[in-house]
Amino acid sequence: MSQTNEMTGGEALVRMLKAHNAGPMFGMGGFQLLPFYDAARRLGLNHNLINDERCAVFAADAYAKVSGRVGLVDATLGPGATNLVTGLVEALNAGSPIVAIVGDAQRDHAGKNMTQETDQVSILRPACKELLRVEAIHRIPEIMRRAFAVATSGRPGPVIVDVPEDIAHGLYGFEEGDFEVDPANEAAPSLRCRPDAGSVAKAAEMIAKAERPILLCGGGIHISGATEAVTRFAEKNGIPVAHTMSGKGAIACTSPLSAGLFGRYDRIANDLIAASDCIVVAGCKLGEIATKRFTIPKKGQNVIHLDIVAEEMGRTYEPAMKLWGDARDGLNDLSDALEASSADQRARREAYLAEIPAKMQKWHDEVAAERLYSDETPVNMARLITELNNHLPENGYLIADGGFAAHWGGLLFNSKSARRSFVPDRGFASIGYGLPGAMGTQLADPEATVVGLTGDGGFNMVLGELETARRMNLGLTVIVVNNAASGYVKALQHLMYGEGNYQSSELAETNYAKVADAMGCHGIRVEDPSELEAALKAAFAEKSRPSVIDVMVTRDPARMLPAVDNRTVQVKKGDRVA
């Protein structure tokens, strides 16, 4: 074999990433992957040092969610590998395409207490869609092709390529043709399938006969790129749309057909679902939050479930009709099958459809307005979201950290068009996602205005990534919801055990604006709601360094949750009301 193309295994990995037009990539190096890093330098791979490997996956996950392209991370043997786990499970549960390259022990000495060695394959395997271990250097191209194919097909997910040290450092004479790839695997979904025609026809008949149908959209709508299909299906047939937190933006929140969030928190959607005679579920797993701990839909309701993963249908609710296939193609097939009856459907449902904007307005005026426009200090969370709705451009993004930020944002933030402008980490709902998620989103859409919404507890976890964002000249904005507490936990303790009975849920008062300034970023402290507009405009004007807006919000745990007044709510044994 010709030696002109002899290269290390590390370089072969980089060449396969470059062949897939991959990047950006986040990681923290170690000896096992040094040849990979050297090749990244020489060949110009867009690789960036991260300060914590979990944040590397969070950034890659958000990049994948927004762009549809494969997110990339790497980690070294042992603690680098195990630090990936939380982010990988987020991507696995959320359906985000990711390829993670992980260094492993030198095989000649594996099992002899090598530095940092552990059985990382056993630890990582449940956290990914597939784990591929490279046992022969010449198989690197084959295995990397497989990694991208698996990551982007079916329900997308993270794929780990485990690379022993001797493979990364070894040499092999590859041929140029070894690095050919299928460009379809650069982004998800790389393959699509559609429900069988007979099932679609039966489902269309059920929908056409319904008086009060409703479409429930999950995050699978965005994975599939199905927002146009949702809008077509809803508008042509006169069917309102509700969404999960991950499904927000399936239709514009400002559309008269939008019923908003359903599940644990809602505006008007839960009552509409309860009264519906035909519920179409698309790209949604019907998990605990979306079903309000499995009480929505009610047992016996007429449900049609469309999903790319067959085993998700019937896991939490047994549907009357299962449609196994891609959300975009499945909804378009339903629209085609309903073409002849669509005008009649719209006419029959005229009064029903008029209820939606009327009920939304009533909710706004009678339930939400007092908080949405509150002048109280500390700042009301609803007022903060109102200012974001008013000032975030239509092409902007709100990245919501787990728990507190996601629930407030999911309920009150408005996607102004049918697109994934709200990016929560609901696959695993870990806190700490807001800043690295904003980083990944900014890289996916460099010209957009990107805001990460995070609690002070979540921000504390990932403060080091402010340095990463500054080093990368990312002009993102992070809003720190500063309540000097692990807010969701403190609110639940208040709810369950009463005023004053808090344990390990309070934080020290910290001025995060000063922290940001000390790290070379742009810090702004907001203590009064009248300061929010100017703070947002000043932050959005920063294009080459991160801004941190430190917003003082209520310290009253009875008022920390979006739709629960903890002074009056009744808790039933065995249930979770928030």
UniProtKB/TrEMBL annotation:
Domain Thiamine pyrophosphate enzyme central, first and last residues per copy: 200-334
Matches recorded under PROSITE patterns: TPP_ENZYMES (PS00187)
Ranges where the Thiamine pyrophosphate enzyme TPP-binding domain occurs: 403-551
Signal peptide interval: none
GO molecular function: acetolactate synthase activity; flavin adenine dinucleotide binding; magnesium ion binding; thiamine pyrophosphate binding
Entry similarity comment: Belongs to the TPP enzyme family.
Name this polypeptide is given: Thiamine pyrophosphate-binding protein
Organism: Hwanghaeella grinnelliae
Classification lineage: Bacteria, Pseudomonadati, Pseudomonadota, Alphaproteobacteria, Rhodospirillales
